Amino acid sequence: MKLHQDRFALSRIASPHFRRSLIGGAVLAVCAGHAYAVAPFVVKDIRVEGIQRTEAGTVFSYLPVRVGETFDDDKGTAAIKALYATGFFKDVRLEEDNGVLVVLVEERPAIASVDFTGTKEFEKDMLVKALREIGVGETKIFDKASVDRAEQELKRQYLSHGLYGVKITTTITPIERNRVNVMFNVDEGDIAKIKQINIVGNKVFSDKELRKLLQLNTSGWFTWYSKADQYSKQKLTGDLETIKSWYLNHGYLEVNVESTQVAITPDKKDIYLTINITEGEKYTVTGVKVDGETFGREQELKNLILLKPGQVYSGELQEASNKRIADRLASFGYAFANVNANPEINRDKHEVAFTFFIDPGKRAYVRHMTISGNTVTRDEVIRREFRQFESSWYDPNRVKISRDRVDRLGYFKDVTVETPESQGTNDQVDVNIAVTERPTGNFQIGGAFSQAEKFTFTAAITQANFAGSGNTVGIELNTSKYNRTVSFSQTNPYFTDDGVSRAFQLYLRTSRPPAVNIGSYTVRQTGANETFGVPFSDSDMVYFGAGLERTALETDESSPTLYKNFVAQNGGPASGIGDAKTNAVPFTIAWGRDTRDSATTPTRGRYQRANLEVDFIGDAKYYRMIYDHEWYRPVTSWMTLALKGELDYGHGIGGHAYPVFKNFYGGGIGSVRGYESSSLGIVDPFTYDALGGSKRVIGNAELQFPFPGSGQDRSLRWFTFADTGQVFQENEKIRADQFRYSAGIGLSWISPVGPLKLSYAKPLNAKPGDRLERFQFQMGTGF
User: Which strand (E) or helix (H) includes residue 156?
Assistant: First the structure.
């Protein structure tokens, strides 16, 4: 028997005590580099021993020899190395038994479970998922090195959350069938808090000014919530960039954060931060120009540059200029344009000139448009809103318009669009649309209670995205103390392929307003209408419609004089106490423009709608005009300014009085908060009830903020507001001194059962006789 170095050796052992001959083992062959040698033999059969979980076929698939082939030392070496490399086995041996190749393996244990104790900072499910990605998870092969890496990764995560005193011990418990349970025992310790932040080298800006810019902070009144006093390397990196950007935006072109020191006390409870800054000098811009490929549009592109000669340098304006030029080139299809601002610095005079070098790259086409996340909504409902098309030039403006149009459908919680470069090409992009659907159907039966309506019974079936088609179908039953409705409606936003919409409605409404607010009378209306909407641009629609409506107005002795007069003038008793019936054929024409980024939670854009309703055929001849205007603009990344204005006007035609049942009312949520619903305007001299009017002016302003703890969820917000408005009669002039004002705070929530708004308002100029209501709430309407 001969021993060979650095090769696998085979040997037959001629011994009467052994029927099998040892061919080789994993430890000898792979680790030691040598083994016993045996003469080649023809394999009559192959047998696997020692497996418990691994299929025999898996072992056979790694063997480089088959039955009938000659087995030699090279194939033995390859077999052992291949089986050992799978990671399934901690020992592999090969033996020969009268021409039968015997593969003996000892499997590594499998992980049966991974669990944690003492974890409060992180959710267990998140930890289990994270560790599985690095090889420690149920059904994974147990490897001590992987478990050690997992333990170190856990420590790293805790350190990033400021828990420097964390201690982690790992327990491995063997169980049946060669499996183990892995338990991580965590002692999180106390969170280390930032005790002091030192800034060194700053001369232009004080420590106080710079500390205001930082996310990190020392402990204070609200740090228990914001966690700003908990050190994080990611937060520190962001803060250093914030400081650098602050200096760059104030002209300090060569500012540099030289170094940072993070020191922790021995008890690992207090952290001291030191930031070292070199400010440099303040620079003034002396000139700007463009170079590179400008396609003959040099002056046009130069006009997009926000940096101007004579200005103090601003890094923010430089980056914005780069983006403006790149976006302009992208609108021509150059999606991968590079714009670099190269400075020419005069350090003696503290001046800098910039050359914006333009490399447009290749013109890009859209290859594919993919839609994901829509489990109910059909692809065509989303795709028909897009104004960027496949095989056409890529245009980022059209992509943005398309995203906003999809969001304005109101069917989705979130809409995101990505435009990655197509793999394998340098002149194509893919447009990937991802949506998160929200429930658009509602079946409700039950009761509700509100301040104005008291107890309300409702039963309604409404589907805003019926069967994913984009159509809206609704059947509504509503009964309350003051209002009852039975209606059926259907809206098809794409009645024709080119975007003409059609909506129709059948309804029966009964209104019996509370005598304590707007007088005692009853209005019953039965009618139907149909409206068509014609798109004139991506954001503009014009609507044409007509309807039939029969109205019955009933009065009694307590009814306001205005309503009694209407009854007397339209075929009722001369006393005005009784009922009068009128037939109307209202024609409508309207215009709407919507450029908001979302229909439910907008942060930017406008919504406008002007509506004219005219009846010159029916009994009560009149016209009424309504104009709404909403405007949204982000003030910061987390705060939005929302302004709303409404102007309404109605008048009789041909000497006819304006129908009182078409009056406008003011007061309450959606109007002027702090005043009772429908209480503004003149009152009846005998009943002292509000009568509404044919003219209404409303103005609202809101500052909207994310609710603490809601993160990026825009469906839950709080806001501060200021309202103004008033209602005027047909022959009354609009007078500014009659307007009412209020201000307050509120909460808005797009809840699973509908939009909810709560507000607390303080009337600012209430007059004697005004009905006040500081706390108000409403479900079912938005801002």
Answer: helix 144-160
Q: Give the relative orientation of helices 124-133 and 144-160 as an angle to the nearest 10 degrees.
A: 130
pLDDT digit string, tens, across residues 334-374: 888 899 999 999 999 999 999 999 999 888 889 889 999 88
Please state which of the four CATH numbers 3.40.50.150, 3.30.70.100, 2.102.10.10, 3.10.20.310 is assigned to the domain occupying 193-278.
Answer: 3.10.20.310
Residue 308 DSSP label: -
Cα gap 641→643, rounded to integer Å: 7
Q: Alpha-carbon distance 276 to 199, whole Å?
A: 6
Rounded distance between C-alpha atoms, residue 468 and residue 631, angstroms:
30
Tell me how far the alpha carbon of residue 253 is from its chain's centroid. 36
Q: Alpha-carbon distance 372 to 437, whole Å?
A: 10
Nearest CA among 151, 160, 158, 156 for reference residue 188: 158
CA distances for 106 relative to 87, 148, 341, 547, angstroms: 11, 22, 64, 84
Quote the CATH superfamily of domain 365-437: membrane protein fhac (3.10.20.310)
How many Cα neighbours within 13 Å face the side chain of 158? 25
Range 547-562 average pLDDT: 86
What is the reported pLDDT for 32? 44
pTM listed for this prediction: 0.57
Domain boundaries, the chain: 20-107, 110-187, 193-278, 284-359, 365-437, 573-779
Residue 583 pLDDT exceeds 50:
yes
